[in-house]
């Protein structure tokens, strides 16, 4: 008889035990962006809801911001770093591909030799990471998992592109996912649509772009340093109506109705998307909505945990409340779920 | 098949609801951006609402050709399923 592999058993359920964020110190108000693009404070506010964003300085690396955010999440979870069974870092703006930045972050967090890896799912990266973490905890391959969303999108911003220069920001947000007696993370409704891969993308691959790294903060006409670009109207339509359907599916899968939510925390892409999505989703006015984008800009993978931390700190939402989260972005990719706030 | 007047009045209601423009200002010769101050994102909202109301598909590539209210009304009449 063939020998049988010993079964692996994990926790029956998982939940988020802690959340933490890091916001860079340098504030970039709209007035500063107007040095680079022909626009106005009013235009930027009405098109995006953004009044200022944070851009990271030289010391605020992807790793540094991640360590700061994750340390807060681990402290809130009340666990020690050596209990972390995996570190997942979602980012599209760590400019050194090899090795994964997650290993350095895990080491600096004091997590020892824990498994650590990066994932690339743009603005849905946090939700993708959450789905993986939930599976690791319930599958028995980790007791606690740190999920970090981190971006330095200023490194990939063409400050002279008037359709994107004002949108992006930098920062990190992290959560600790671990075992729970009751379900704390609903079914993650996630997917991709590669037929729309070119709707949001980097302008050039590194091999064709390589050459002018000093051009990051002042692109000349000859530079090929890549930046992020997007087709605003196409993204807007997809992000509002298709994503409202995905958000509704996440609610249905969790067996939760919108009026039972304590918070709605969509990816902070654009205030207009958030407002239109609320309408499309018919979200009751009683549900507090994350609007962190006004002072943070669009931080891609970091935006949901950053907004979650802010809502808990400000008292807009409370620990134990149910929150609907949804991330969506370049890929196109998306991930939505109902979670219990830590 | 909806008449031009029916489509125009339906579209005027949509523009009014989304952009707050008085429905009577929404006339065939008016430009969405220049005359009615409907910005590119509001235009997408108008298009999606019009698709639902008139049972018509208006692809993104087509939206940029709809410069005036008349352009939109004609497109809807020519492409509506009902």
In short:
The complex is a heterodimer of chains A (342) and B (82). Chain A is of the alpha/beta class and 342 residues long.
Number of strands of chain B: 0
| Structure class of chain B | mainly alpha
Distance between the termini of chain A: 48 Å
Radius of gyration of chain B: 11 Å
> What fraction of the residues of chain B are assigned to beta strands by DSSP?
under 5%
Can you give the helix content of chain B as a percent range? Answer: 55-70%
Please characterize this protein's 3D structure.
The complex is a heterodimer of chains A (342) and B (82). Chain A is α/β, with parallel strands linked by helices and 342 residues long. Chain A contains ten helices and 13 strands. Chain A has helices at 30-33, 41-48, 62-77, 101-109, 125-139, 206-209, 232-254, 271-281, 293-296, 303-314, and strands at residues 13-22, 26-29, 52-55, 84-90, 116-119, 144-152, 170-180, 189-192, 200-202, 228-230, 263-266, 322-329, 333-340. In chain A, strands 1-7-6-4-5 form a five-stranded mixed β-sheet, with helices on both faces. In chain A, strands 8-13-12-11 form a four-stranded mixed β-sheet, with helices on both faces. Chain A has a two-stranded antiparallel ribbon with strand order 2-3. In chain A, a hairpin with a 3-residue loop joins β12 (322-329) and β13. Chain A is globular. Chain B is mainly α. In chain B, 56% of the residues lie in helices and 0% in strands. Chain B has four helices and no strands. In chain B, α1 (4-19) packs across α4 (69-79). The longest helix of chain B has 16 residues, at 4-19. Chain B is globular and about 30 Å long. The mean pLDDT of chain B is 89. Chains A and B meet through α7 of A and α2 of B.
């Amino acid at each position: 008889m063939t020998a049988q592999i010993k079964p692996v058993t994990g926790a029956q359920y998982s939940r988020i035990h802690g959340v933490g964020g890091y916001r860079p110190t340098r504030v970039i108000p709209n007035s500063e962006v107007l040095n680079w693009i022909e626009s106005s404070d009013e235009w930027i506010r009405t098109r995006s809801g953004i009044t200022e964003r944070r851009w990271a300085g030289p010391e605020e690396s992807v790793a540094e911001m991640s360590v700061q955010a994750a340390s807060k999440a681990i402290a809130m979870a009340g666990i020690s770093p050596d209990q972390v069974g995996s570190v997942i870092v979602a980012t599209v703006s760590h400019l050194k591909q090899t090795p994964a930045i997650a290993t350095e972050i895990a080491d600096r967090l004091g997590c020892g030799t824990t498994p650590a890896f990066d994932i690339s799912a743009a603005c849905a990266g946090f939700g993708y990471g959450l789905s993986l973490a939930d599976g690791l905890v319930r599958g028995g391959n980790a007791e606690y998992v740190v999920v970090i969303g981190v971006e330095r999108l200023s490194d990939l911003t063409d400050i002279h592109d008037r359709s994107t220069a004002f949108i992006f920001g930098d920062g990190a947000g992290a959560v600790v996912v671990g075992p729970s007696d009751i379900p704390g993370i609903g079914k993650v409704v996630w997917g991709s649509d590669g037929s729309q891969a070119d709707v949001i993308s980097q302008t050039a691959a590194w091999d064709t772009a390589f050459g002018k790294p000093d051009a990051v903060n002042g692109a000349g006409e000859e530079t090929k340093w890549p930046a992020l670009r997007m087709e605003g109207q196409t993204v807007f339509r997809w992000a509002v109506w298709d994503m409202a359907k995905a958000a509704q599916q996440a609610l249905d899968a969790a067996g939760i109705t919108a009026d039972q939510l304590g918070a709605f925390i969509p990816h902070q892409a654009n205030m207009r998307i958030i407002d239109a999505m609320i309408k499309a989703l018919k979200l009751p006015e009683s549900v507090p909505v994350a609007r962190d984008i006004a002072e943070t800009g669009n931080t891609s993978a970091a935006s949901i945990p950053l907004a979650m931390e802010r809502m808990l700190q400000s008292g807009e939402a409370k620990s134990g409340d149910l929150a609907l989260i949804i991330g969506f972005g370049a890929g196109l990719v998306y991930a939505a779920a109902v979670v219990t706030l830590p | 098949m909806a008449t031009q007047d029916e489509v125009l009045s339906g579209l005027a209601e949509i523009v009014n609801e989304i952009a707050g423009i008085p429905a009577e200002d929404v006339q065939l010769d008016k430009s969405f951006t220049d005359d009615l101050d409907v910005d590119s994102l509001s235009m997408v909202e108008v298009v999606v609402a019009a698709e639902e109301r008139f049972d018509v598909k208006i692809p993104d590539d087509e939206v940029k050709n709809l410069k005036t209210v008349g352009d939109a009304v004609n497109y809807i009449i020519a492409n509506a399923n009902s």
